[in-house]
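Hi team,

As requested, here is the filled-out complex form for the pyridoxal-5'-phosphate run. I kept the field names the same as last time so the parser does not choke. Let me know if anything looks off before we queue the next batch.

— J.
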Amino acid sequence: MRNSGTVCGAAGDAGAPATRTQSGQMSQTAGHAAPEMQPHSMRAISPDYPRPKIPTAPVLSLATFLRDKHRPAPSILNHAGARFVTSGRMAIGLALQQMKIGPGDKVLLPAYNCSSMVEPVISIGATPVFYKIRPDTSVDLDDIEAHLDGNAKALLVTHYFGFPQTLSVVRRLCDQRGVMLVEDCAHSFFGGSDTSPVGAYGDYAIASSMKFFPIFDGGCLVSTRHDIGKIPLRSAGFGFEAKAVLNTLEKGFEYGRLKAVELLLYLPMALKNLAWRKIKNTAPTKYKAFGPGASDGGFSFEPSWLDKKSSLCSRVLIALASKSRIAAKRRANYMRLQEALADLPDCRPLFAQLPEEVVPYVFPLVARDPARVFPLLKNAGVPVIRFGEFLWDGVDETLCPVSVDLSRRVMQFPCHQELKPAELDWMIGQIRHIFLMKGVA
Ligand SMILES: Cc1ncc(COP(=O)(O)O)c(C=O)c1O
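And here is what came back:
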């Protein structure tokens, strides 16, 4: 199986499409407002890389349920009443809907983005306006302030790679200017302190559960300030529920997990594959409609999934998975990567330290020459990804040079809880080998 070079939703299917298109149209606005965009513009085509040799995102194994001695990690679920949807972008869509944002309104988004953060804004008919971020990924408050005119109704702030922004000052600014704050915890399901877990500052906070749990689909919306209990959500139907279970198991099997279960299910799975292939060939649209594109590594926003609940399988797995193990393993794997790559030339960790309250999404490494190193890593089967590899059309050097630089140079390596020690060792070996190769700067 081959895969594309970029993943926005970490659950990205190994066979995800290699091209990315942005849909919808933006109105032309001045200054740093949303740049003009060609409708359905073709994005750069990623080369066809081999399937990663180790899992990019968590895959189900028996270890998922192991209890451990670590204390429970704070998470977005510490806020009562979380609503479970099928992806982070759907949670953004619901937040925008709850804020009654629509045509004529502006939504401020970070210039360092992936299109699944922008598409919900376009879909609702509002105008995205991009603000600058700094080299350490913190928001440029002056630039945000400069964009707060009467039409700016909401501001989305992202905790990149699991490292929280300082939001008290952003919150104050939003209160002063009557702007709603959406806390984007897509990379930080866990983290914060006992008194203030991630998601506490936003009017609404969203997460992308797929990035932290071994599940097919998943996003969630929470709010400490507004009642979200009445948002109507319904099941996406039997086909979706079945696909969620089967896909979750298959991802585990694909990477050598759950061997006994695989053996037991060999015959039913073979029959299922036969039936699936038949549906795929005779009714490809129906086959696709069983699951949201977000679960297959797509970037687009499908409004038909806005009122759909996350699958029962995903919700049960989130409830049963050991959260303290997830936090502890991710931190330990991150530290292992940091130590093992510390002496490599031509690269540095994006963050100098791993603060105690951080549960990392990935290990971000800044490469001096990504154009040479990235394809070598991909071709070796290393599950490296680049957040914002394709920034939204028009987000360029003039708008935010830092975002352009980070989108090119930051290589993300997995540090998730389901990596086996041997897999982590293999990945470290590959990274070291490639960065130390003669002629590769
Ligand atoms: C920072 C950020 N926000 C939001 C999203 C949307 O999450 P999802 O892919 O679950 O829709 C992503 C997806 O990768 C993301 O990276």
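Two things worth flagging: Residues 8-9, 87-89, 114, 116-117, 158, 184, 186-187, 208, 210, 219, 294, 387 surround pyridoxal-5'-phosphate (CB under 6 Å). The CA atoms of residues 13 and 162 lie 22 Å apart.

Thanks,
J.
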